[in-house]
Amino acid sequence: MxxxxxxxxxxxxxxxxLCAKACHEEAIGMxxxxxxxxxxxxxDGLGDCLPACPTGAITFVEREAAGYDETxxxxxxxxxxxxxxxxxxxxxxxxVQIKLAPVNAPYFNGANLLIAADCTAYAYGRFHEDFIRDxxxxxxxxxxxxCDYTDKLTQIITxxxxxxxxVVRMEVPCCGGIEHAAVxxxxxxxxxxxxxxxxxxxxxxILQ
Length: 208
Description:
Residues 4-33, 34-63 form the 4Fe-4S ferredoxin-type domain. It holds the Pfam family Fer4_21. The protein has seven helices and eight strands; from the N terminus they run E-H-E-E-E-H-E-H-H-E-H-H-E-H-E. Strand 2 (28-31) and strand 3 form a beta hairpin. By secondary structure, the chain is α/β, with parallel strands linked by helices.
């Protein structure tokens, strides 16, 4: 079909990206430092991007182009949201600090329990997606709290229907305390449930 659609003059484009931010349909992307119309059917032809361009690189033209497809636009936005790290919180309970958490709570029943060192969520970019999702999380720092979490974690694991245990720690020596407390608590409980220890490097990689 012949319809009105934007045209981007790459010679005039200075790569500022303002047009891409102004386009609510996300039809414009930055490719090799230049603005580009990604797909014809993402462009609604309303021109929200035109006033955002400081160099006059964007104009309207009438040409053969696929019609605007709102469904395709929404699907594209959803895909981008799913790819964004940390875009959506996966946390389902509060509090999260081991020191503040109750030893019994409804959310512990049937829970996959995550016990994590404070720093891990900052070091590992996909922490919510890869670790907090579908888990109840407790966090702590044995160095800063200067206490032994073993007794409290033993009470939590013993007194609730915990289905699995995941411990996430940093590679640094001080994180050994939270691993020791969690594993000892599981042993003290006498329960046989799946468990694992995951170690994160200081540059955000999973080591084991």
